[in-house]
């Protein structure tokens, strides 16, 4: 899909999601991410079978969830900690798709460990970053050629989706365009006149095909 077409798809998706968000906000009840009787630690693929749908929300990190100040300290972006907590409370799985130097490790786990050290050593604030929420869902480039906006990392996440609906949230249109072209529900964060992040209740309804 070319850039013009993908931008059109993104605009169409956001128009739909805006309407969905209004509808859901007016509703007195919201669908549960995991139905009664399904353990909260059920893997996403099994959860999809049990709940007839699930979603994984993938994020960029820098300036989407985490802000780096002029003094090189890092902290949550406004609203990010609250949003992650809401997703956690609704049992919506999250992951990171983020660029780090490929030299930071031979595996995603090694590069993720190096990333955590870099963020944690400059972290400002009493609430640490919620690394535990992401588990092993931290995808990073294996080579410099895989760095975003190359589509490789989104394709890797999609290949492991196990039937779950995929959402991608980032602050740059270049990245959300690529994600949208690959079938993600893509949401550009931090835009005026709309929520900083895609509302969690919208994600629940997407997970269940609403």
From TrEMBL:
Signal peptide start-end: 1-32
Keyword entries, A-Z: Signal
CDD domains on file: HAD_like
SUPFAM superfamilies associated with the record: HAD-like
Protein name: Hydrolase
Organism name: Streptomyces bathyalis
